[in-house]
């Protein structure tokens, strides 16, 4: 019969083996939880064996470092996925129109976008008829008018609608003018959208899904008239 005695050397070897195996984990957040658990185990290990050697002092210091860093990164992970991470003035817009995105994804969309703000008697021309696609915009507040020849209004765009979304999807030239006297909108340039498609295809797909939904809503509105 083999008498096994749990010695500090064995505990240290077991903890080191678990730490090494943890790096085969494919989920970063799970890996962070494992490292936090190992750090706590190392705290108890150092309490058990004492700090009489430089090796044990080093183990304790590394455990404190790993614990602190990974708790911080875990907090950042969950905070970035909480609506509290969205700027206060954008939270209602996010909840109502952009909830398909995770909060940190929406923040990235805000970061890459430009603000259009206009409230004057003189209308601002947002889109020129028969022009190449340049910008995709989302109306946060206010509205706009779709006009054709001789500035005849054929439809209205309201809060929550997209501008130039059809040209964005098809790549065709714009089919009408879009003007507004009172609008607050978020806009993304063609160049920015192309970069988004290449670097963040998952965000680009979600954007397409939002636009498709809005196109359906516009179609329903037009059929009711």
Number of contiguous helices: 8
Quaternary status of these chains? single chain
Strand content: 15-25%
Mean pLDDT: 90
Draw up the topology in text.
Layout: H1 8-22, H2 28-49, H3 54-80, H4 91-97, H5 103-112, E1 114-127, E2 135-142, E3 144-147, E4 153-157, E5 162-163, H6 165-170, E6 177-189, H7 190-199, H8 201-224
Antiparallel strand pairs: 1-6, 2-5, 2-6, 3-4, 3-6
Helix pairs in contact: 1-2, 2-3, 7-8
Keywords:
Jelly Rolls; 6 strands; 20% strand; 225 residues; 8 helices; 2 domains; alpha+beta; six-stranded antiparallel sheet; rod-shaped; single chain
Please provide a written account of the structure.
The protein is α+β, with helices and mostly antiparallel strands and 225 residues long. It has two domains: 8-80; 88-224, Jelly Rolls, CATH 2.60.120.10. The chain is built from eight helices and six strands. It has helices spanning 8-22, 28-49, 54-80, 91-97, 103-112, 165-170, 190-199, 201-224, and strands spanning 114-127, 135-142, 144-147, 153-157, 162-163, 177-189. The radius of gyration is 28 Å and the shape is rod-shaped.
Outline:
The chain has 225 residues and is α+β, with helices and mostly antiparallel strands. It has helices at residues 8-22, 28-49, 54-80, 91-97, 103-112, 165-170, 190-199, 201-224, and strands at residues 114-127, 135-142, 144-147, 153-157, 162-163, 177-189. The chain is 54% helix and 20% strand.
């Amino acid at each position: 019969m083999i008498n096994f005695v749990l010695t500090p050397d064995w505990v240290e070897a077991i903890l080191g083996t678990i730490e090494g195996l943890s790096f085969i984990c494919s989920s970063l957040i799970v890996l962070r939880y494992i490292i936090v658990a190992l750090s706590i185990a190392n705290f108890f290990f150092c309490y058990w064996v004492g700090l009489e050697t430089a090796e044990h002092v080093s183990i304790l210091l590394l455990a404190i470092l790993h614990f602190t860093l990974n708790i911080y990164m875990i907090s950042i992970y969950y905070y970035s996925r909480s609506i509290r991470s969205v700027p206060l003035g954008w939270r209602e817009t996010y909840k109502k129109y952009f909830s398909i995105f995770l909060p940190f994804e929406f923040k990235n969309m805000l970061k890459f976008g430009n603000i259009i703000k206009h409230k004057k008697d003189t209308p601002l021309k947002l889109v020129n008829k028969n022009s190449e696609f340049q910008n995709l915009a989302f109306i946060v507040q206010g509205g706009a008018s779709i006009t054709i020849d001789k500035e005849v209004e054929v439809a209205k765009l309201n809060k929550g609608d997209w501008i130039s979304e059809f040209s964005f999807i098809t790549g065709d030239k714009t089919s009408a003018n879009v003007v507004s006297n009172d609008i607050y909108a978020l806009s993304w340039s063609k160049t920015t959208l192309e970069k988004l498609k290449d670097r963040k295809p998952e965000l680009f797909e979600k954007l397409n899904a939002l636009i498709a939904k809005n196109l359906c809503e516009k179609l329903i509105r037009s059929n009711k008239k």
